Sequence to fold (156 residues):
Amino acid sequence: MKRFLFALFVAVFALVGCGKDPVVADIEAFNTVGNHAFKDVAPTMASLNERTAVAKTNEEKAAILGELVTLMNDKSKMLGDFKAKTPEVGKISEAITGGFKSAAEGAAEAQAAMLHNSQDELGSATRKITNGQTLLRQGMEDFMKLAQEKGVKLNK
Fold:
């Protein structure tokens, strides 16, 4: 009986030790969502940039900005649907999602400014886009740093 209890104790202890660090699991899960969300961003952005470079009117530029707003809102929603189980990854997820939302709001304001031909509105919108990009970049840096600290290799 003592051997049985000892063996049971060892088995339970071994199983408890096999559990994955919840932060690591969250990093891996968020990385998977991020990879899915960002897979088509680079070619889409390249296309939008090329089209913006040849756009001749504010209306054409505003239409392209509308596409950018849609893209950023879609990516923000994808990332926002992720629910972190740990505060470390939750904070990072919120920063990245918030960066996308702020940049999308700024792009929407820039679209309106183009249509109104308002330099003041465009300046304000540009600042909001820049703030969003800063939040996004900082969140990504924090995510990579946390992954490195936890020894998680991120898919690129």
About this structure: The CA atoms of residues 76 and 100 lie 6 Å apart.
